[in-house]
Amino acid sequence: MKKLAKIFCLMACLAAFSLFEGFVLAAQSSTALEKAGTSEAVQTSAAALTFPSDSTALYPFYQHLDSLRKGERSRLNILHIGASHVQAGVFSHRMRWHFAQLGDTSALPSRGLIFPYSAARTNNPPYYKVSSQGQWKTTRNVYKEHDVPLGMSGIAISTQDTSSTLFLRLNRDSSLVYHFNRIRLLTNEPSPSFIPCVDDSILGTYDRDSRTWTFHLLQEKDSFSLSFIENTFVKEFMEMQRLPFMPEDSAYFQLNGILLDNDNPGVCYHAIGVNGASVHDYIRCPHFARDMRLLQPDLVIFGIGINDATKPEFTKELFVSQYDTLITYLRDANPALSMIFMTNNDSYIRRKKPNEKALVARDAFAELAEKHQAALWDVFDMMGGLGSAYRWYQNGLMKPDLVHFSNQGYEYLGDCLFEAIMQDYKHYQKQKEE
User: Fold this and answer.
1) Is the pTM of this model over 0.85?
2) Among candidate residues 89, 119, 109, 96, the one with its CA nearest the CA of residue 225
């Protein structure tokens, strides 16, 4: 069955690609879904986006997409935010691959926000490699207490070891090849003891408003190393001017995320995910809104909720209220952003019984989509409803824990969501022509 699932995903991919004409996917309503498996595993009628209050909710995003196509706009930013489904990287990368096909794949724009998960001793997406040396400490938004203030990534690594280093290389697979000539590090307040240095020789400039270091490279690359030097001149100057800085015993460097950029136009697909995270965990990050202004997303795909629905205190009212707060942070970065809410997938509690709170979460997502004039993508219904996770596992699309998807399953979700967006985009194009 696993071999069959791989074939299904490949067929879905080929079907989606062949249906492009310029920027429009002239898709039939059943293409990817009918090729993805039997109707026993997938409810083909539920794959489309729905709009509880405004059928034109994504039209501003489509207008930006048209402007990008005409060369009137250089970048389009999409943010996909979730928990372990997103940290794994496969689902978001599948979406990234599809959107990349809308432009010149030989000159791709920024890959999007990156976090060095391996340095934080947790699973890293398979599409870029991270290695580190020295003593790095991890802080995640799921921790009860945060050692350092967190930003939009919901996770950070920090060090007080000046000999610590970090190395990152893109393009571990050949599906998409990215290069960059600018590096932006999302950090904390600077310390003279921890001046970051790229490739052992390149120094950057610090922006106090955004708390970022920016490095400009002479040529495009697909990898870089990070190390530290102590700037004794700056330290002495600050002491003479009696300017405050962190004392030696408390000085540290904190890394909240990495933006690797270039000047190429296109769609930038950013992904933020932390294993085990809930909506509440993200709104606890004090610098979430500040960091989000760096991305200014045009479209946000919300996939947070699977962990919320496992908590004893979970209620529809609390869930909606917490999402309202998170949306306020995002709209501070871009008041005109478009939104897609993904419902929770069907899942089991300790592999014993389906989590019925998914039904409550589904109603909450529908309310959020109606309240915020957003689109809704009902993964729960598409899977087949309560208890369907086991059938997906039998078809090789879910892992044995009946919570997480297999790589084939995540790729399949990416195929289906992209097709759903393109179906609505096609409808928008038709209305525009009338």
Assistant:
1) yes
2) 119
Range in 33-37, 199-203, 267-271 the model is least confident about: 33-37
pLDDT confidence band for 382 (50 / 70 / 90): very high
Helices (H), 260-315: 279-283, 288-295
Cβ-based neighbour number of residue 38 at 10 Å: 11
List, in order, residues 6 or more apart from 242 with CB less than 8 Å away.
none
Residue-wise burial string across 307-341, b where 16 or more C-beta atoms lie within 10 A, e elsewhere: bbbeeeebebeebbebbeebbebbbebbeebbbbb
- In sequence order, the 6+-apart residues with CB closer than 8 A to the CB of 78 are 95, 99, 267, 268, 269, 270, 297, 298, 299, 300, 301
How far apart (Å, rounded) are the C-alpha atoms in residues 400 and 94? 22
Q: What is the DSSP code (8-state) at residue 406?
A: P
Residue 159, judged by CB atoms within 10 A of its CB (0-12, 13-18, 19+), counts as: buried
Ramachandran category for residue 25: left, alpha or beta (phi over 0 → left; psi -120 to 50 → alpha): beta
Count helices and strands (H / E) in the chain: 13, 20
Contact 299, 62 (CB under 8 A): no
Handedness of CA 41, 44, 45, 46 (dihedral sign): positive
Give start and end residues of each alpha helix (H) in 127-258: 232-240
